[in-house]
Amino acid sequence: MGSRVRDGAGVIRIGVIDRRREWSMSFQDKVQHKAEEAKGAAKDKAGDLTDDERLQAEGQAEQRSANVKQAGDKVKDAAGKAKDALS
């Protein structure tokens, strides 16, 4: 079970619930970042097929941005696992 912490208002929070909320937000972020990557790939391909360099460059930029966000997600996951291992 999770750790119990009493906050300033006297409410007891249980660590398991907090972790579920974190997991849910983390999962939503991962899905959003993957969708951004797919959107960028679609723009990149559409720009390539139509010889629209601007659209292609925009798609590539969106893919890079999504990849950076996904790398951040992986770092957060690794940090969380390391924290849990030390607990």
UniProtKB/TrEMBL annotation:
Coiled coil (UniProt feature): none
Region (Disordered): 58-87
Ranges of compositional bias, category Basic and acidic residues: 71-87
Pfam families found in the cross-reference section: CsbD
Matches recorded under SUPFAM superfamilies: Hypothetical protein YjbJ (SSF69047)
Domain CsbD-like residues, every copy: 29-79
Domain of life: Bacteria
Family to which the UniProt record says this protein belongs: Belongs to the UPF0337 (CsbD) family.
Protein name (record): CsbD-like domain-containing protein
Organism of origin: Dactylosporangium salmoneum
